[in-house]
Amino acid sequence: MAIDIDTARKVAKLARIRVEEGDLPALADKLSGILGFMEQLNEVDVTGVEPMTSVTPMRLKRREDVVTDGDIQAQVLKNAPDAREGFFAVPKVVE
User: Fold this and answer.
1) What is the pLDDT of residue 57?
2) Residue 67 falls within a domain, yes or no?
3) Is 28 within a domain?
4) Is residue 53 part of a domain?
5) Cα separation of 12 and 18, whole Å?
6) How far apart are CA 23 and CA 12, in angstroms?
7) CA dist 19 to 11, 13, 22, Å?
């Protein structure tokens, strides 16, 4: 798939990137190259290939899924600029 200059302009606008008018042809060529590479990847047959988390086969570390309250309220509130009665204190914003 080839990207034309109008499409490159639209992509730059959507990405909020300022691209000078003279640089649009180069951007269109680069975007076309990226899409061409993606088309090459789509040609690869991955049937039967399991997804990997790493190139080294290993199991993910797992922990028991237990709900706790954390028991670290004092440690968390030490980081707060203002804490009262066990909660974060913030300025009033609604009258």
Assistant:
1) 75
2) no
3) yes
4) no
5) 7
6) 11
7) 10, 9, 8
